[in-house]
Amino acid sequence: MINLLPLLFVLVSSPVPLSCFEQQPEFTDFEVTSQGVIYRNAYHGAPLSEPKMVADLSASGWLFSTQHRVVGSYLPQTALVGQQRFEQLLLLAFHPGLQSEQLVVVRVFPQQSESWQFDQLLPHLDDAVMAAGDTVVAALWQQQQQAAGWWRPIPGKATQLPTLYAGILYLPVAQVVDGDCPLYPLDVSVHIIHMHSGHTVSPPETVQLSEPGPLQWQLKVEGDYLGLWLQHKDDNWLLQPQLLQILPDCLQCSSVIEHSSWPKMLPVAHFWLEEGAY
Fold first, then answer.
1. What span, in angstroms and rounded, lies between the C-alpha atoms of 222 and 67?
2. How many CB atoms neighbour CB 202 within 10 A?
3. In which region does residue 202 sit, left (phi positive, over 0), alpha (psi from -120 to 50) or beta (all else)?
């Protein structure tokens, strides 16, 4: 008979991601269990008659935070079709064996009929892989677009869920030396990550927090460009003087967003004048 007590002790004593930091509740169409099973409970806010399982990541053995974020995006190309829209779930998990947190990204497509399994997610592309030749990286780009998602280790404790701007994830990570909740003042590194492959877009930026409290993001005009600011209490840091956006041409492709090209207003509906209808 297998003794499950050591495993249960590890799981119970393992720190759940985000448990040390104040979080605002986010309501989505999905539910994530601590074992990493993901259910869709609604579609655009309209409840389903019964939950539908879209992914089962329990084979990882990781402990997942039930808090998650959902963003909408599209892939420039896949194996079977052209541009394809999907929902992307941003998750945080704890690896009991390595005693480290993981960033996990799962794609959910509108016509998806089968639930994803953990082995259908790919490890993120690290700096060494991205330094390979263009042919290798181009092949990896095709592979990444056909996967269910990706995961990458986090060097510390995530203080909140990633924020997405122009295809790039910004993940604040506390630099801690043990498994306990960190003490303040606290050094936080903001990791800048490609949303489709998990590779690092640019080096992390580090700020110091004097006390607990949520971090806020804000876009401001900086000359001809958009700047990305991080705010905490009375402190403000300019993280990106020139906000970047990813491009579909290749994994390394990105460009600076000019202020004049940023959409300030988007059309949401057209109402036509009708006469004699009643």
1. 33
2. 12
3. beta
